[in-house]
Design brief:
The protein is an all-alpha fold and 226 residues long. It is built from eight helices and no strands. It is 81% helix and 0% strand.
Length: 226
């Protein structure tokens, strides 16, 4: 029989692979959409909406990886979370998961704009929480018992920061997309979109690098000097 710890560990590994794999697909679709300049605006709008649907997969992985990772850490005695704490974390993560999908489903409505703004601002709080608790733990006073776990949490904050940067460049592309979709594009609009997508890709590469390091830390569990 496979024990619960092994099942959760394999789920955690699978989610990391799912995350990077879906990001590769999103990146390919992004540049296909940005370069489809000969298509009518309505078709490019359909492409973009499909891209936004596919982009939910990396977001799924980001959220699910949090309770999986902390469950493993709690069961290993590396964070001060008992069974009740782990349960609360899963409930909060499921609420976050639901909120993320509601923001996506309502993105074309006034409510969607408000949900997106709240989601955007919450990322800054989560990034700060990761960096501060991880740094505090490296000083021997925080909740994480080992330096490699503290660094994983800090780097996870970096992953979310990269996600914010990607969304920033997506927002820049919206300077041009409405005119493109309405078949009223100006001469510079296609270039605005392509430049924004390229800059977003640099942030995506940084995100992938951080995920690789995080995966290494979780697998090797090295002894690190703070």
């Amino acid at each position: 029989m496979i024990d619960s710890y092994t099942l959760v560990k394999w789920a955690h590994v699978w989610v990391m692979g799912y995350w990077i794999g879906s990001d590769l697909v999103v990146n390919a679709l992004t540049f296909y959409t940005a370069r489809s300049t000969a298509l009518a605006g309505a078709e490019r709008r359909r492409q973009w909406d499909f891209l936004m649907d596919v982009d939910q997969h990396p977001r799924n992985a980001l959220i699910v990886s949090v309770p999986l990772g902390f469950t493993l850490a709690a069961w290993s005695g590396l964070v001060p979370l008992g069974s009740a704490g782990v349960l609360v974390l899963w409930i909060l993560s499921l609420a976050w998961f639901w909120y993320m999908w509601m923001t996506h489903w309502k993105r074309h409505s006034p409510l969607g704009s408000k949900l997106a703004a709240w989601d955007w601002n919450s990322r800054y709080l989560l990034i700060a929480a990761c960096v501060l608790t991880g740094g505090w733990s490296l000083l021997g006073r925080g909740p994480f018992a080992t330096s490699w776990l503290a660094w994983k949490v800090i780097l996870f904050g970096g992953v979310m920061a990269c996600g914010v940067a990607i969304r920033h460049y997506i927002r820049i592309s919206y300077q041009a997309w409405p005119r493109i979709w309405a078949d009223q594009k100006q001469a510079c609009d296609d270039q605005i979109v392509l430049d924004a997508m390229r800059r977003g890709t640099y942030a995506l590469w940084a995100l992938w690098a951080l995920l690789v390091i995080i995966g290494y830390l979780g697998a090797a569990k090295p002894t690190l000097v703070p």
